[in-house]
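# nightly structure sweep
# worker-07 picked up a monomer target from the shared queue
# config: single-sequence mode, recycle default, output format = structure tokens
# input follows
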Amino acid sequence: MHRNWKQPLLQSVKDGVVAIIPIIIIGSFCMIPVGLGNLFGGGFGAWVNDHILIFNFPTYFTTNIMSLFSAFFIAESLAKRYEMKSPSMLGIMAMLCQVVLCVEVDAENSMIFDITSLGSEGLFVSIIFGLLVVEITRMFVKHNWTIRMPDSVPPMVSESFMSLIPFAVNVILAVAVALLCQTYAGTTFPKIIISLLAPAISSMDSVWAVAIIIFLTQLLWVFGLHGAAITQSVWAPFAITYAAENAAAVAAGATPEHIFTYGFYFGFLQVSGSGMTLLLVIMMCRSKAKSLSSIGKVGIVPSIFGINEPIIFGLPMIMNPYMLVPFVLGPVICAVISYEAMATGLVSLPLGEAPGFLPPGFQAFLLTMDWKAAVLAIFNVVLMGVFYYPFFKAMEADEVRKEREIEAQKEAQNA
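# output follows
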């Protein structure tokens, strides 16, 4: 029962946080001219600086209020998993609570004066209240603590009145928390949460944390579990927060500080999919074993664009003794190399976020505007090919032997 309660929450957090990636990417596109200006300098760099407000303008409505969107998607996702009515209404309810909790107001002048907590700072608040809003509403609906209208009333109107009481309760709770924080702590709820999470947030952006995350992700795949989907629910909020902070620093003319961002994970450590299997797929396409060759040809195009489930489940990687060592440990080594390359200044740090599902090197370059980043991403794929090669040859030999035995049996039966 505990597992059934826990899983929808974790999955909804993952879905909700991942859903805002396109919004963050749009905001991060604004950093590309800034990155190019820093890269080329001179007159072009001066022109970019002179027009920095124009380039940064979309960020005010994307990355700067990302937690608002996150609250909506988390609540909507959980409502859908519970098969509740009007999941979008619950998303709107969560957004309202997010505004109440994150925005500071000047009571004397009746004006909003600080919305900075609606950005990455409010991401963890959106997780808390995105889930809480749905759970409270679900409890009210379950116990019929709602306003019920006659059957003759149109469904849309009836559902609106049904959500009225839980809507009010959620807003009252958010107002109470916001007022308590601002009255007794002199700050907003998100700032309190960030101060409590500060040790965890700072420790997540380290080479050891990244290595452990990659190791667990790969190991879960081996046992047939979607490693990336499971671990993302833990690290994605941190990584997205780091990316937003980097983007804000670049927009302010400062230097980005964080390495472990969402784009870093997929642009350097998951190139061509979990385990970075692109060269392995090419080996399979050229394999003497017909079974491996067939799977490789099916998986080659998706792998180029970062989708390698056909290989993971078709080879398979799951419980495969030949692939265990390179598939699990190889990406960990690549993670350490990639992190240290940025930590030492050899490769530029992420400027924000970049589109995913691109061929090797493209996302890394757009993420950093540094050609060395593209080289590093391609290097990781090549290095993984070196790791896979001896294990692949052993697996290939075994597959060829099995196919020859099958052919021999067929010939014996036909003789």
